[in-house]
Amino acid sequence: MSSAIVDFVSNAQTQTLLRSAAMPDGSRVREILAKAGELRGLELEEVVFLLRVEDMALLHELHVAARRVKDEIYGSRLVLFAPLYISNACLNECAYCGFRRENLALRRRTLTQAEIAEEVKALVSQGHKRLLLVAGEEFGAGKNIHYVLESIRTIYATKVGNGEIRRVNVNIAPLSVDQFRQLKAENIGTYQLFQETYHEETYRQHHLAGPKRDYHWRLEAMDRAMEAGIGDVGIGALFGLYDWRFELLSLLQHARHLEDVFGVGPHTISVPRMELAAGSNVASRPPFAVSDQDFLKLVAILRIAVPYTGIIMSTRESSELRNQTLQLGVSQISAGSRTDPGGYTSHQSGQDTSQFQLGDHRPLDEVVLDAVRMGFIPSFCTGCYRMGRTGRDFMDLAKPGEIKKHCEPNGLSTFQEYLCDYATPQTRAEGEKRIQAMMETMSPVPRQKCEKMVSRVKSGHRDVFV
Ligand code: SAM
Ligand code: SF4
After folding, report:
1. Half-sphere CA count of 37, side-chain side, radius 13 A
2. Is the CB of 251 under 6 A from ligand 1?
3. Whether this model's pTM surpasses 0.85
4. Which residues neighbour 147 within 8 Å (Cβ) at sequence distance 6 or greater?
């Protein structure tokens, strides 16, 4: 284990930091928020200070600052994706998860390549362009990595009319450097992995058997992924296992560690909150349940502390809460999700094959329409990764707020593509009005560029991006 890693997650140091903060006073909080407005991110000591803010007026200022930072960096685009569960077979015993190996009531299902293609067709037919491939861990020690690699090839090869999946992100168990190289060779977008909890003792309590018991193998996964050349990695913690403040500080330390060692921080940070899972007592009563108010605060702090990083909100949360987090700077959301392998096509899908319960059951078109009504541009863009704007190149554009120049036109053109090919008449009408309104706010040069791209899509061109 490298010493840099030991240092950055020193549990004792994090606890000391948490205890050290003085009670926040308004002027200091405003000073920190003003610094955040310059998109410079925050020091851990400043974050600790914000964690203590309870005053409603100051919390409101924090929320406003978070939204401003998101708008500065990404504009009003909101990226949409769907998870694709290819297998719920698992060697591990994670106490909170429906897929844990001792859950004998769970019907195990590993999709064949033909079944994966059917699932992909169902998702493409809804309008998705970006998938997150998810699987239980049955390829520990390299056993089944070929299954994952083949599945990625199947996804990219599946077409429905004009539509196809253009970016596959992956959330699977940690791999060796060699295996990560194989994954990269399949042209994946982001490799995602959640540490679950950064608190080592708590980690041991909830990971009772299987390869996942090794806390450090998981913690070092992103270092191995980056060593293998995967530039875009996504980190996260499962909120509910331990004190959310501790997890937040640890996530920030993880981000800083990657930046220090590889010159590039995480492409995304996910903030899953523990949901009910069949056969899990821990999931029914999370030991450190996070209230809605604290959850919003954590999203807002994350947004301003690491402004260049995408924040992902899944359908674990209700539509109401998800909509609130959009105002605080969440930049990517899943939509129309199923967490059971075969769930998009199978009539038998349901609780006996699902990982956990979902809070948002809206179909994609409804999520899109709600986002439009809230003033967002739903984006199906996959341009950056296909133009090679990944890893450090992406960060160099994101940090000064330059990435917006690509996100805006690409968001508009891919949204127009969705409206032409998949939207209900009402969503199309409201969506096109939104596109028009958005273009009217632009200065002449970018406006001209966007108008040209949108009209190319309207006249039948597809996959228009810069
Ligand atoms: N099996 C791999 C792993 O554990 O890393 C990857 C896929 S796992 C299905 C994806 C994530 O689901 C886990 O990292 C965990 O954070 C999350 N998860 C598990 N049980 C959950 C629950 N009850 N509620 C919310 N999220 C859960
Ligand atoms: Fe398996 Fe992942 Fe669920 Fe753990 S969280 S039981 S490793 S699928």
Report:
1. 12
2. no
3. yes
4. 86, 87, 110, 139
Q: Could you tell me which of 458, 462, 60, 97 has the C-alpha nearest to residue 274? A: 97
**Which of the ligands is closest to the CA of residue 94?**
2
* Full set of structural domains in the chain with CATH: 1-459 (3.20.20.70)
459 is written with which tokens?
Answer: 């006249």
Top mutation candidate among 85, 87, 92 for ligand 2, by most atoms within 8 Å of CB: 92
- Please list, in sequence order, all residues whose beta carbon lies within 8 angstroms of the beta carbon of residue 434, skipping any fewer than 6 positions away: 372, 375, 377
Residue of 96, 99, 194, 218 to test ligand 2 pocket, by largest number of atoms within 8 Å of CB? 99
Give, for 227, the enclosing helix (H) or strand (E). helix 221-227
Determine the atom of ligand 1 nearest the C-alpha atom of 99.
9
d(CA 372, CA 449): 22
Is the CB of 316 inside a 6 Å radius of any atom of ligand 1?
A: yes
Q: How far apart are CA 283 and CA 273, in angstroms?
A: 10
pLDDT in tens, the chain (466 residues): 444 455 677 788 888 888 886 777 889 999 999 999 999 899 999 999 999 999 999 999 999 999 999 888 878 889 999 999 999 999 999 999 999 999 999 999 999 999 999 999 999 999 999 999 999 998 644 457 999 999 999 999 999 998 999 999 999 999 999 999 999 999 999 999 999 999 999 999 999 999 999 999 999 999 999 999 999 999 999 999 999 999 999 999 999 999 999 999 999 999 999 999 988 999 999 999 999 999 999 999 999 999 989 999 998 889 999 999 999 989 999 998 999 999 999 866 555 677 777 888 889 999 999 999 999 999 998 877 676 767 666 666 666 666 566 778 889 999 999 999 999 999 999 999 999 999 999 989 889 999 999 999 999 999 888 8
Phi, psi for residue 124 in degrees, rounded to 5: -65, -40
Q: How far is CA 178 from the centre of its chain?
A: 25
Instruction: Yes or no: say if 364 and 128 are a contact pair by the CB < 8 Å rule.
Output: yes
Can you read off the two tokens belonging to residue 269? Answer: 């940070």
| Alpha-carbon gap, residue 160 to 106, rounded angstroms | 32
Any ligand 1 atom below 6 A from CB of 274: yes
117 in Cβ contact with 86 (< 8 Å): no
- Tell me the C-alpha distance between 265 and 256, whole Å: 7
DSSP assigned state of 24 = P
**Spatial contact of 371 and 120, defined as CB atoms under 8 Å apart:** no
